[in-house]
Amino acid sequence: MTANDVLDALYRLLMKHGKPEYIRSDNGPEFIAEALQAWLIKVGFKPLHIAPGSPWENGYNERFDGTLRREVLDAEWFHTLRQAQSAINVWLRQYNTIRPHHALGMRPPVPETLLEKRQISGTY
């Protein structure tokens, strides 16, 4: 992946979802390239970088990415993008609604989130 690949992906995401206030990335060459940094600042982003040698600042993403890779992307050979998207969507539903997470007391995230929303709104 190059800085141009990152720019292309960011452009498509911005057109679809709008502009966030910040973009946080690691210090990979594709993210710290001068052309990318100049473009981010020019369009009004506040780029944030994880401190070099501080992977714990991105621990959640690193763990999620590794789990997705191990359990889906490396476990199957995909012939089309649609096939990969379908497998990832099935896995995401299981990951978010069924799979227990240590940080949530062995509960899945979606039911936990729904419970929090009900408590905040005062409904049960």
What do these coordinates show?
There is one protein chain. This protein is mostly helical and 124 residues long. Helix 4 (59-73) crosses helix 5. It contains 6 helices and 2 strands. The chain is globular and about 40 Å long. The protein is 59% helix and 6% strand.
List the quaternary state of the chains.
Answer: single chain
User: What is the succession of H and E elements?
Assistant: HEHHEHHH
Q: What's the arrangement of strands in the largest beta sheet?
A: 1-2
What is the residue-averaged pLDDT? Answer: 79
Give me the secondary-structure topology.
Elements: H1 3-17, E1 22-25, H2 29-32, H3 34-42, E2 46-49, H4 59-73, H5 81-97, H6 109-121
Parallel strand pairs: 1-2
Helix pairs in contact: 4-5
Could you provide a short overview of the structure?
The chain is mainly alpha-helical and 124 residues long.
Question: Which descriptors would you attach to this protein?
Answer:
globular, mainly alpha, two-stranded parallel ribbon, 124 residues, 6 helices
